[in-house]
Amino acid sequence: MAQISDLIRDSRLDTYFLPDHRVETVHAYRESDPTGQRRVVNRSEHWKREKKIGGGGYGDVWLEKCTSGGQPNCTFRAVKQMTVDLKYGAIDYNRELEAIAKFSHKRYERCFVRSFGWYEDGDQLFIAMEYLEAGDMFSLLYQKPPLPEIDAKEIADQILEGLDMMHDNGFAHRDLKPNNILIKSHPPNGWWIKIADFGISKRIEEGNVPFSTVRGTQGYIAPERYGLVEQGSEYATDIWALGEIVFQLLTQKPTFKNFALLAKFMAQPDIFPCGELVKLNVSSLGIDFVLAVMNPSPTERLTAKLALSHEWIKKVTETAKTPMKFDFSKTSPMNPTNENLDNPTEDQFAAWSTLSIRPKPANKIPGKALQEETLLDG
């Protein structure tokens, strides 16, 4: 890997693999005695791979079980595995490791999936994370009827809190989508969601750097990334993606079924599909919020902080409500196969895959990690 920061180095796990290579992993710790009886104790954790629970353009995710030496209330974990030496060059994962280490701090962990550290084996990089059995927000798109407005509002509030933390610390997520919003709890126990997957996150320097390529996932990419409007900040692209997520939670439909409609919206903002929200009795404040975070102009789009002050979000309370009961069994990471589920949203986004927007692969740079990210999730 490329040179790493102290923050990343300190989160590295001392690791060795048992003979059943990569299926059984052992981490060695030298730490203070939690009982206070001894200055230093040696401890080891043994983890065994159970099954694959996810995957995409940036790697695979495995469910692992602790077989001995684990901490209380930590029987399972999720491990993201990535190849760091691809055909067209090495991807620099320092960016993701830095973001994960940063936002696993207790100050932020209520909003982000917590990491327990990282390790590597040859050309493979592994990131150990907390396992959230309830699955991801994408599973909600399969539910009938759509999510009640009060629930969508609460979820939006929590996502915005996380984005505000990221943006205040100089990070943009750049691939916000339902698959990267994981569920820690849901009604009747109340919503608690966490932002995950910093695979193409970026620390923003002063000033705006031109977008060198289209990054993100089709259907959630802001129009400025396609060059349809003037360039704005990287943060504004996160806010657009949030608006798309909220619209889908409320309607189970994408705002724009294809690129042509998105391009038309840039020229004619009055064609935004507010009618879909009106048909489902979404409040005027809710509609105004969606329009404000999906403003065609990135410079006029609400920031995360301003969005948190929007009247629709400010009305999020802990007052009693009648929660819907969702069946998460079909899309939980414990049952990750979704091929047989009816998913109109996914079908509608499929049309975007025909766009010729993927740049040619960069040439491999010997001895240097490639600084550009993996492109669109296909």
UniProtKB/TrEMBL annotation:
GO terms for molecular function: ATP binding; protein kinase activity. GO terms for biological process: signal transduction. Residues 47-313 form the Protein kinase domain. Residues 329-343 have a biased composition (Polar residues). Residues 326-345 are annotated as: Disordered. It comes from the Eukaryota. InterPro entries: Kinase-like_dom_sf (IPR011009), Plant_MAPKKK (IPR052751), Prot_kinase_dom (IPR000719), Ser/Thr_kinase_AS (IPR008271). This is Tetratricopeptide-like helical.
